[in-house]
Write a structure and sequence with these properties.
10 strands; 4-stranded antiparallel sheet; 9 helices; 37% helix; alpha/beta; 259 residues; 27% strand
Length: 259
């Protein structure tokens, strides 16, 4: 198993994501109740929590799909909720989003799936530039031999890898991973955790990894943020977070059967 990248490459003076006093409710349901979080340049932060705790809501607010009720959200020095559509589109080009279900186009082969975001966003690129970019990201995820296959011919883990490759092809500064190991067997999950660490190192990305998988959080997160009942109970190293005596944290830990 690849070792998690150490903190030496993280710039702790430069926050690429900075959240202060974030609140979000849906009718009478308070989902986020005043959360603060910084993600520093080059850092992976794993956001842990049970289903329905607001992890996905947080991601949607970061990319401008949802508006906060209150709070300040800065991403790459831009206040997200104050951007117009053109500014938001420009910011989103710098943010890679790895969907839980990989979100590949079933009718396109791997090559076409990877070419699609490049051609959409950079229509003037020459064919040899597109080919080079496709080969580079396939090399990065270890699937060059799958270039002509359809998503239906790939395993769940391979589809996840291709989904990450399609995100990487635009060279994002920030990666957002939504439940990257969900539905995968333990061996494939380890491979995806290793890939997340490789991406951090090779592409110098800063990432938020949304997960309820403790193994994923421990393997990939330079820091872990435990989201419960709308607030971060603790942000720190994995060991710091789970050293707490809070019964809710202990129940979460025990449920995951980590020794």
């Amino acid at each position: 198993m690849h070792k998690k990248n150490d903190d030496s490459s993280i710039n702790h003076t430069e926050a690429v994501i900075s959240i202060r006093g974030l609140y979000k409710s849906f009718g009478p349901l308070d989902v986020l109740k005043g959360i603060d979080l910084d993600v520093f340049k080059g850092e992976n932060v794993a956001v842990l929590g049970r289903s329905g705790t607001g992890k996905s809501v947080l991601i949607k607010i970061l990319v401008g799909l949802l508006k906060p009720d209150a709070g300040n959200i800065m991403v790459l020095d831009k206040q997200v909720d104050k951007l117009n559509q053109k500014e938001l589109d420009a910011l989103r080009l710098k943010i890679g989003f790895s969907f839980q279900n990989s979100a590949l186009y079933d009718s396109m082969n791997v090559r076409q799936n990877l070419e699609f975001p490049l051609k959409m966003n950079y229509p003037d690129l020459k064919k040899n530039e597109v080919d080079k970019a496709v080969e580079e990201v396939l090399e990065a995820v270890g699937l060059k031999d799958k270039i002509d296959q359809l998503p239906s011919d790939l395993s769940g883990g391979q589809r996840k890898r291709i989904g990450i490759a399609r995100t990487l092809i635009l060279k994002p500064e920030i990666m957002l991973y939504d439940e990257p190991t969900s539905g995968l067997d333990p061996i494939t999950s380890i491979e995806i955790n290793n890939l997340i660490n490789d991406v951090q190192q090779q592409y110098k990305t800063s990432s938020i990894i949304i997960t309820h998988d403790l193994t994923c959080a421990k393997a990939t997160g330079n820091r872990v943020a435990m989201l419960m009942d709308g607030v971060f109970l603790k942000v720190g190293s994995f060991d710091d977070v789970f050293a707490q005596t809070d019964e809710r944290v202990q129940r979460f830990f025990n449920y995951n059967f980590i020794q």
